[in-house]
Amino acid sequence: MKPQTPPQTYRVKSFGCQMNVYDGERMAELLGERGIQPAADGEDADLVILNTCHIREKAAEKVYSDIGRLVLAGKQSEAKGGRPPMIAVAGCVAQAEGDEIMKRAPAVSIVVGPQAYHRLPEMLDKAAKGERATDTDMPAIAKFDALPARAKRGPSAFLTVQEGCDKFCTYCVVPYTRGAEISRPFLHLIAEAHKLVEAGAREITLLGQNVNAWAGEDDKGRPTGLAGLIHALARIDGLARIRYTTSHPNDMDEALIAAHGEVDKLMPYLHLPVQAGNDRVLKAMNRQHTVDSYLKLIEKFRAVRPDIALSGDFIVGFPGETEAEFADTLRIVDEVRYAACFSFKYSPRPGTPAATLDFQIAPEVMDDRLTRLQARLTDHQYAFNQASVGKTCTVLVERAGRFPGQWVGKSPWLQSVWFEGEYAIGDLVEVTLAEAGTKSLKALVSASV
Ligand code: 5AD
Ligand code: SF4
To answer: pTM (2 decimals)?
Structure first.
């Protein structure tokens, strides 16, 4: 590889989950500290970071087509006297397939895993000298210690509190790409939350692959779980809303359930994936919970917070899933009445136990099941939105709407809500929900708070 001019501008393209969005922001901050600026809209960047996702095959394949596109664009730019961008691959594909990327894509200068991106500056120096750089080490806490202070502006911010997974669901690559569960220390998180609020955040979403497995010691050295962290964050003036995602049913404790009845700032929304509605399938997935234990948990949340909006993740076509077992998934959807959901066709991931199971399901059967499941989920989402009509609530304004004078934000139940008036991003506006669609609601303004 030839020596390359050190980059002055960058672009980070994040795929996949919210954790990747957070990581993308932190990499941007790291580059900002070195004086590397974001490329202007429509301009080529000197450095492109593909922050990749490995969770499903389609997501993982995207990285190679994106590299191909960048190489082509680089050649066109070179023909006009410009230079091709330096390409870095970050995220979970980098972690899982780093060596293969280096072999298959000679244009890539840097491969950096999700636990190593604090070393990006050194890797850039190496790349500038013409050496390719790979770092897929896994010491996660070191990363957080080495990152600069938060600079994020905007009303809604992410805060990674926990990373990794020890659950080993048989279909999932996360335990291999993100490593074992680790929790960031309580005081670091409180400090980062203060910084975010000072920079304008009014809502913080706590992130973790198993966010409710977060554990630490509070400021007095007492052991505490996620509920304790939420109570402490709720004491930050200027912070109006707290959310957390994604939870695992087996890591739920009574304190966290109770917090939903005690902490006003904790929004009435819970993302609690169940994946399937049949006990045999759940066992084959190694979920370590049953349909019944999941439903009992939901009942507990509804007892302390009757209006709580529930969302989940579903996989259709897990190896061996019969039509009757799939029908059980439709049944649990009807029983829970989810307000929102994410549903996926099973995708065999290299290195996971399920990938080598017999009785993989035919693609057309998966397509059919996914269509039916999504239709059912959409029905429930619409019903949830319709049942919200007439409710008064606050909306956190996130952006201007499509037409002048229109604003779009989120209700406490994470619905997209639009309304008219003179507001600014970051305002909390009290509205009455007036008309429901499947994906959003129209509201009338009652007052500003
Ligand atoms: N195939 C399909 N969906 C998957 N998920 C995780 N692994 C796979 C896979 N191999 C889904 C799960 C998880 C979400 C983040 O992605 O539903 O909760
Ligand atoms: Fe993957 Fe299961 Fe861990 Fe979630 S709990 S990240 S689905 S292994």
So the answer is: 0.91
